Every structure is written in C-alpha cells, then in structure tokens.
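I had to read the description of the data format several times before I understood it. In essence, backbone conformation is discretised, so a fold becomes a row of integers matching the chain in length. I therefore recommend that a typical entry be quoted early in the introduction. For illustration, here is how one protein appears when written out as sequence plus structure tokens.

***
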Amino acid sequence: MVAADPVATVRARADALYRAAVECCRQHDRSAKLFSSSDPELEHKHADALCAMCDGSLAELSAAYETATAHVHPPDAEGWWHKANALWHASREYQRRHAGCDALSKRLATKHSPDQLAAMQMEYELEASSLLALRHAAEAYRKTRPELT
C-alpha cells in the first residue's frame, strides 16, 4: 500500500478548512439577518444551532489542518500554502474571539455595569472583525485554488 502524498493531504485539509470557513461565515451572515427582523423564535433557535455546528466544524477542521501540517513543509513555490496558513490563523483567531464573547456573555448574563457593557461591546466588535478577517482569508485562499467553488 502506497502512503498518500503528504502535501496532497495538507492541501485537501486546507480545502476542507476553506469550505468550513465559507459556510461558517454564510451561516453567521444568515443569522445576523434573522436577528434584525421579527422572525419567529423557533427560527432563531435553529439559526443559532446551525452557527454552533459550523463553528464546531471550523474548529475541528482547523485542528485537522494543524495536525497535517506538523511535519510537512511544501516548497515556497506553492502559493496556496501561505494562504492556507493565513486561513488557519484567521480561523483560530475567530474561534478565540467567539469563545471570549461566549464566556463574557455568560458571566454578565444577569447584572452588568456600564463598564462591563462597554467591555462586552468591544468583545462583540472584535468577534465581528475576526469573522471578517476569516472571510477575507478564505477568499484569498480560494484565489490560489480556482477549482474550489
């Protein structure tokens, strides 16, 4: 049995990470649109569940990419490699910001001072910024892999 080409494995994991990032961004955009309207509560519940599933998928595929790249270093001529690493960094930053928002929201769920509200607002802004960075990193990666849709 012939072992798979390690560079091809890394590229396949990068492609999967790309698809997860795109879907994560899409679901969060969809959810944001729902929350700005007066749609039924049940739809909001399911949108939250889809976002959570996409966030989990992004985290798992990010870890899989990290594992695949641990001992593989494609030649510098591989343009996708640098964009894939940037996508991986953006996905990790998004995960970190998202977890920070969740933790702060839970901690301040009942009582909060104006200063705590300001801190929460800043965390939400940083999370939104990291989601935008994830979107840009995914688009940059896609440009190196035109066969991805």
Notes: The chain has a mean pLDDT of 86. The radius of gyration is 18 Å.
